[in-house]
Amino acid sequence: MSAPRSDALVFFGASGDLAFKSIFPALQGLAATGQLDMPVLGVARKEWTREDLIARARASIEAAGVFQPEAFDRLSANLHYVKGDYASPSTYAEIRARLGSARRPLHYLAIPPSMFEHVIRGLAEHGCANGGRVVVEKPFGRDLASAQALDRVLHQYFRERDIFRIDHYLGKEPVQNLLYFRFANTFLEPIWNRQYVERIEITMAESFGIKGRGRLYDELGAIRDVVQNHLLQIAALLLMEPPVGQDPEAIRDAKGQAFRAMRPLDPAEVVRGQFDGYRDEAGVDPDSDAETFAALRLHVDSWRWAGVPIYIRAGKCLPVSATEVFVTLKRPPLAVFEDVPVAPPNHVRFRLSPEVLIELGTRAKRAGEGNLGEEVNLDACRNTVHAVPPYQRLLGDAMRGDQTLFARTDAVEASWRVVEPVLVNRPPLHWYKAGSWGPDAANRLIEGGVWHDPAATISSAPEPAATR
Ligand code: BG6
User: Fold this and answer.
1) pLDDT-based confidence at 461, cuts 50/70/90?
2) pLDDT at position 421
3) Index of the ligand 1 atom closest to the CA of residue 230
4) How far, in Å, from the CA of 169 to the mean position of ligand 1?
């Protein structure tokens, strides 16, 4: 039996950056596809009117370059503004009144985590939780204990199936393709293990800094901001066993197992860096210890992956913006041809951004005398066209009650267990120059001393809007 659709959307944080950058365009996309013919309440503390909210939505959608007049009219006809303090009961009384006859609202908490509990209790005490669903933005907690405490509050008022822990990476088409590509093909699985895989590198490089998010970012640092969630989620999709069945829980069960096999990080195998000039950013503590770069080695204790190093690296102000997975395969067991032992080994590359690419790196004989070869890259996929933007996909799924692309509580807890040792016992901070690949210490972490450089092959094509 399919779950009933939500019949209203309430989003907290309507005046915030996330709403401007991603949520309004997603709402217009939902309106354009007929998925939002219901009241949409934006909630924030600003002294705004309904017209101000509509003007902000329009400015956001225009800035994203996706304005569609008809869809925007459909959206704005349903938009309402609730001005309120998140700690004040009158805010929730007004939300309930504005919801009118809606009985299954979806509440989306796009607000700082310190406000989650107020909002969840406020909603529940004013009859907005019954029959409702809740979408919680990342980060889900600051560590294992706070994630568990947040879960306890949520579970007092919402059933697990009505709680949606959002990680927008899971809504990205190329991230979903990791799972699809692995299990829709027969040729990959037989070699996707410790017998054939030498190592896996996951790089999330951003050429920009913290974009005015100083105060929030300074409380997080790269490990909480992107490693515990986006990058470990990607790792789980690469490492998981084939799910048994197609239902959302089968996939989430297999992912949960992959998370549990990840060994808690060893602080000696984690390098933290901060770019020069970070402490001068607005909102940042002048003595800040927050890392804007992290590189680490992850061990996976499973039969499939034992001994295969998984290297993860993420940072701000790096030379390029690119996110990619690079899987290096082992060399052939015998050097039948003289060039093979010195040539680059085979690889599988999943480029998630700026362009989308799945590439198999092979060797083939070069024409002519002698047995000398050259690298031949086979493209299995290049650029996703007409993809649904992640927030549109995820909010649409949550309104239908589909949990597949959301993080389950066991996975969230397991991922906090993985990073917890370095939150408690923080490795020393190294400085690096903006525009470099982070501190030198990161190179000493990786076997051979050289990380795969995604910049070497980045195409000049602009990122497809839908992957953002
Ligand atoms: C967010 C992080 O979750 O993801 C940001 O808070 C980061 O620091 C962003 O820049 C990257 O997302 P995307 O979709 O632009 O790759």
Assistant:
1) very low
2) 98
3) 3
4) 8
Inter-CA distances, 335 with 193, 327, 343, 367, Å = 22, 21, 11, 20
Q: Is the CB of 206 under 6 A from ligand 1?
A: yes
Is 118 designated active site? Answer: no
Residue 159: its pLDDT value, please?
94
Minimum-distance ligand 1 atom for the alpha carbon of 225: 6
Is residue 390 within 8 A of residue 356, CB to CB? The reply is: no
The CA distance from 96 to 114, in Å, is 23
- Does residue 213 line the site of ligand 1, with CB under 6 A? no
- Does the predicted TM-score (pTM) go above 0.85? yes
Helix, strand, coil shares, percent, the chain, to 5: 40, 20, 40
Find the range with the poorest average confidence among 60-64, 149-153, 324-328, 368-372.
368-372
Q: What is the maximal distance between C-alpha atoms in the chain?
A: 83
Which atom of ligand 1 is least distant from the CA of 229? 3
Q: Report residue 347 as tokens.
A: 């690889």
Cα pseudo-dihedral 190, 196, 198, 203, rounded to 10: -20
Which candidate in 168, 230, 347, 452 is catalytic?
230
Q: Single out the residue of 53, 64, 79 nearest to residue 25, CA to CA.
A: 64
* Ligand 1 contact, 219 CB (< 6 A): no
**Residue 101: is it exposed, middle or buried by C-beta count within 10 angstroms (0-12/13-18/19+)?**
exposed
CB burial class (10 A; 0-12, 13-18, 19+) of residue 428?
exposed
Mutate to test the pocket of ligand 1, among 140, 211, 217, 226 (most ligand atoms within 8 A of CB): 226
CB of residue 225 inside a 6 A radius of ligand 1: yes
Confidence of residue 403 (pLDDT cuts 50, 70, 90): very high
Distance CA 270, CA 291 (A): 11
Q: Which two tokens stand for residue 341?
A: 């032992």
Residue 322's beta-bridge partner residues? 205
Query: Which tokens in the block code for residue 179?
Result: 């799972």
Q: What atom of ligand 1 comes closest to residue 167's alpha carbon? A: 3
